[in-house]
Design a protein that fits this description.
The protein folds into two domains: 176 residues, Glycogen Phosphorylase B (Rossmann fold, 3-Layer(aba) Sandwich); 146 residues, Glycogen Phosphorylase B (Rossmann fold). It contains 13 helices and 13 strands. A seven-stranded parallel beta sheet has the order 3-2-1-4-5-6-7, sandwiched between helices. A six-stranded parallel beta sheet has the order 10-9-8-11-12-13, sandwiched between helices. Helix 3 crosses helix 4. The longest helix has 22 residues. It starts with 12 loop residues before the first strand and ends in a 10-residue tail after the last helix.
């Protein structure tokens, strides 16, 4: 009889690469569930954005490998190649059975070169890749499958719900964050995430929407913004270009990585140029507006149809659609619990079974 809480699947050595900030909270429940089922998890993290800072805050044990190479496309490609080479030493030392990420191109490239199965979890279907960086398998959020997404040789699986359903159910509010950031709960608090300037999908229209939003906030009485730049370079640029945003403490930028879910919960509304924070707000029932002007994904289309997300497409809509107002907040969020986490880990185990049966599958080497 198997031990309670353990999987009947053969034990795996799973390598997870944390490549971007949202990957940290997302993978924590997956790591926990994999280990509960008797599997071993190895972690690496890229020194980019606030990945390592947040991983440290969450108490994760990882090996720091590689960094961000900037927004220029050629440098991005060079960065992927160089980090793949850096990751090889870790692979050679640990010989994992399977490599898992939420879109780590460097890990996928290395996996394809050395022959270990690579699995990417994704909730956005319009991501670009470079040669040799496609994963062997995809596990996608169900809205993508509902719109007919396919993948090579049928190597695609899905999980019910959206990415945020994996980790948002574990959230517990901590009001000490307001004092930590020096925020007055009597004010209207707006959390603002600028567009990702260095991403391949960046559209300059999003920057215009951000500027109009911040102008509206500065002009409004009793409103405070918490601005979350993507990196220190973006923070310096915004501070230099818009000192009026920061006059009279209208806008605060946290001095360190903060719990994004906690900040969203204690905000009256969220406006973001990216995907994760928008979806976190939608999952928590917080009013949320997207100023993302890249190609819209299936998850955001679903949330918009459900009335849980408002898309802002023009400068005029910043003024006409975004409502700066206090919201009614309960003591804790009413979070829908779905089976996303169990689906994901079960699919990982099933993919491993298929790979082990494949005549072309490499033989894993245990230490």
């Amino acid at each position: 009889m198997p031990q309670e809480g353990r999987s009947t699947a053969p034990p795996l050595k799973v390598w997870i690469d944390l490549d971007n900030t949202p990957h940290v909270p997302f993978f924590i429940p997956i790591i926990r569930e994999l280990e509960r089922r008797g599997h071993q998890v190895l972690l690496t993290a890229r020194d980019a954005y606030q990945v390592c800072e947040l991983a440290d805050e969450k108490g994760l044990s990882y090996v720091k490998i590689g960094r961000h190479f900037g927004r220029h496309r050629v440098l991005k490609v060079v960065g992927v190649l160089w980090r793949s080479a850096q990751l090889f030493k870790f692979y050679r030392q640990h010989k994992p059975d399977l490599a898992l990420s939420h879109g780590s191109r460097s890990l996928n490239m290395l996996g394809n070169l050395v022959g270990i199965p690579t699995v990417v979890l994704t909730d956005y279907e319009n991501t670009r890749t470079i040669p040799l960086s496609n994963p062997r398998w995809l596990i996608v959020a169900s809205p993508l499958m509902a719109e007919g997404l396919t993948y090579k040789k049928g190597r695609i699986r899905s999980y019910r719900g959206i990415k945020e359903n994996v980790y948002v159910p574990d959230f517990r509010p901590d009001p000490s964050l307001l004092d930590e950031l020096g925020l007055d709960s009597g004010k209207i608090i707006v959390t603002v995430r600028p567009p990702a300037e260095e991403a391949h999908y960046h559209n300059p229209e999003g920057d215009l929407l951000l500027s109009e939003l911040m102008k509206m906030i500065v002009e409004s009485k009793g409103v405070r913004a918490v601005l979350l730049p993507r990196n220190h370079r973006q923070e310096r640029r915004l501070r230099d270009a818009h000192p009026e945003w920061f006059a009279n403490e209208t806008t605060k930028i946290p001095s360190h990585a903060v719990d994004g879910l906690n900040l969203v919960w204690f905000s009256d509304l969220v406006v973001s140029g990216g995907g994760t924070m928008n979806r976190e707000a939608a999952a928590l029932g917080v009013p949320v507006y997207s100023i993302f002007r890249g190609k819209m994904g299936a998850v955001d289309r679903l949330l918009e149809r459900q009335g849980r997300l408002t898309m802002i497409q023009t400068v005029d809509e910043v003024r006409t659609k975004i409502r700066l107002a206090k919201r009614e907040r309960s003591s804790a969020p009413n979070i829908e619990r779905v089976t996303a986490l169990d689906d994901i880990v079960t699919q990982i185990e099933e993919i491993s079974r298929i790979e082990r049966k494949s005549p072309s599958a490499p033989k894993a080497t245990r230490q």
